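Continued from yesterday's entry.
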Amino acid sequence: MGLLILRRFCSRRPGLQRYGRIASWTSLLMIAVVCSVPLLPPREAPSPAVSLPVIQSAVGADQQVGPGILTLSNLVTVVPYEVQTERGEPRRIYFPAEVDGWHARFELDLGVDHLYLDRTYLQPNPTGGIDTVTAANKVPEKVQRNVYDGDTVHATVRLGSLVADFVDPLLGTRHSHHGNAVLNHVWSGSDGFGSRLGNISFTVLEPYETILDFPHHHIILIRLDPTGHRLAVVSAYTPYRVIPLFKVGRIDLPSTDTTAVFEWGVQAILSGVLDTLLIDTGNEPDELDYITIPKIAAHLTIHGDSRQGHAALDHLVFAGRTYNAVPFELEGKDSGLMQDWIGLPFLSRLGVVGFNFRTRQLILYR
């Protein structure tokens, strides 16, 4: 994970996108009423420089949102998301969530191993939780080579109607306040797609079956029992195929003072070669490593430089189905990554895909 973070962090350029909506005159009147309600709950007033990145609210609790989808306040919720694209491919998913009372915009990032919160807006408090940053406690932004630089804090996350007071085993065991989040500047500000308050990882989503409905731009969360079984029936999303998720261990890079944690991967056959593809919804393009490229070169149509260009791959077999002309970026030199990975570009081809981290399964639905 740290390798992916290092690559992604170094490649991102500052920029800020602001989003607008076109509304009818009726909608404008409704917005005028809604805007009279504070976006933030009554907390310590933020400094004038602090403005949390906000998008629309999640679907409310206990309501029918579609055939076979009934949101239940403590078992099922549906959260709409924004998808940001580049060159016609989805690259980022942003959605609204609430952390300890702060309602803001977050990125879905299954390639990181913790919940990361932006130190630009928040600061640790004496009890191990978080407060709004004050001018006296701002920490200068700087390039951080190790994602573990920063403060370990405890946070409660609300996703739609579901409250996740979750445990992070790696952080909780080394922190007196049972920390489950990291507060730092690794993803501060904008990455060219817009600002957000943090990156939500699989640690937050572990109590739920997490379904990405790409056609409808919805995240559906279904609470699980300790063995990974649904606690509610959601007939609209009936699994028809499950693929094992592999948890990949740590890799240390002494030369960069970075620890990488590639958390989850799936197996696929790339032009006859069995391969493990790491999953990272926060990564930009799908990518092939320099070690893999020569093995499958006969089925690659390469555009540009074979060392840093892009290509289309034929005969990629995943979950019993063959995909052709699958776009990949090429990492044609030894960057130390030595892995291939997939993100939103390939996952979105699957239509509706889910993750059950308790049973270690990637799920496809009818």
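--- second protein ---
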Amino acid sequence: MLIATERAEETALTIHDYGLVGYRRVLEQQYELRDKRRWGKIANTILMAEHPPVITLGARQSANKLLANRSVLAQKQIDVVDIRRGGGATAHNPGQVVFYPILHLGDIGLGISEYIRELEALGIELLEQLGVKSKRREGFPGLWVGEKKIASIGVRISKSVTYHGMAINIQNDLKIFDLLVPCGLDGVEMTSALKETGNRYSMNQVKEKLSQLLIRHFSAATEPKTAKRFSGSGLPPWLKRPLPTGETYERTNKVLSSLGLETICTNANCPNRGECWSRGTATVLILGNVCTRNCKFCSVASGKPKPPDPTEPVRLAEMAMQLGLKYLVITSVDRDDLPDGGAGHFRDCINKVRQPCPNTRFEILTPDFRGCQATAIKILRDALPFVFAHNVETVPSLYPIARAVGSYQRSLNLLKMAKEGYDNIQTKSSIMLGLGETGAEVEEVLRDLRNVGCDRITIGQYLQPSKNSLEVAEYISPARFDWWKQKAIGLGFSWVMCSPFARSSYFAEQENTF
């Protein structure tokens, strides 16, 4: 009998809480729902339960190690059930929460290994809410607290539909595990949230927390999870780019070289250089190619830069004329050595280009002007109009490793000052995905940007630009980028560029992107 049913139409996910119920009954229900899900007769469904004492044996016979014969187990009123899920022997009893997802993996954009990792991620979050720090262990599905196991995973997938699932020890009697070798791993000790914290829990509250996590991780209305964890085995197919070539590419290259101009395209090893230069566009890098900072996501050289070159604005104007630029993006390295952070040089470059090219439109991608934001905003007012861009780059939690000298709040403050300090301008920012951020963190950044009036957003895949840069933590699929684009549009951004190859100046000249 169903104890409770939670149905959220907007999530296309049904969750049933069976309460305390015999294992065999839930197993039969899984088979029935699995077949219905194959034929599309039901939505994605998840069953939650606690079970009377039972030992289940998996498909891997070598991992099915009982330490008591079945007659002894029967005397102890412990059922033994042979099933065909992955893994080996495990046990269930009251105080352990078990959930069985009946999901079509195509709906949530997951492969089998990604699905296992998603189960683990969900379990880590639940246990953290209960005060337990758990972790994965390479090659051993489930969750661990030190050398002790706290959660087990055994799944089976048939025609892309999942069944069986995950068991997490909350406050169950761990003595049942003395009757078997858990998952066939000799010497493994089992633990529980109760044993780790000394706290007892309301199982109903635990299930409520679990329900929310299940909706967030497996609802079709939430962010698709399709991704490829970095393994060092090369780029996924959607991140392959053809070699740069063509007459326009060669002409752009020749003009830039002849005028001695730097670009972020080359200094940051941008994957879009071939495409952009073949369209006759490039993002110029002013104030030299040596940065006063050393951000770990960037390949631009770090050190002591030279003073600003007074001839650079003139050379920039000559480039704009030769290439007939209608839209020019200007960026710079961080120049913490300059009293105005380089703002005066930005102004001079724009005004010099405007003399021969009055119809050229501008976008400036600035540093954060640490210690001189108000001064920089005032100086740049003399070069309006332009799109004012400044990149937050990543989520706040990753700043210490990716952008140690930067400040997330400082970046937000700069964008707010620009929006409030200039009339009728568009402000813009950019964030990279694939450094290890969570979806919730990305959404928080998008909301923060909208709260300071940011109009435009670029969301792209982080790619390691040099061997000394941070490694990629995750490759984000095109489908997931499509999802983030719709999320950004829904939050009110007026211009959204969101794709694996999107960079802050990629197709910046477009009036809109949707």
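The chain has 16 helices and 25 strands. Residues 4-222 form a domain with the BirA Bifunctional Protein; domain 2 fold (CATH 3.30.930.10). Will compare against the first tomorrow.
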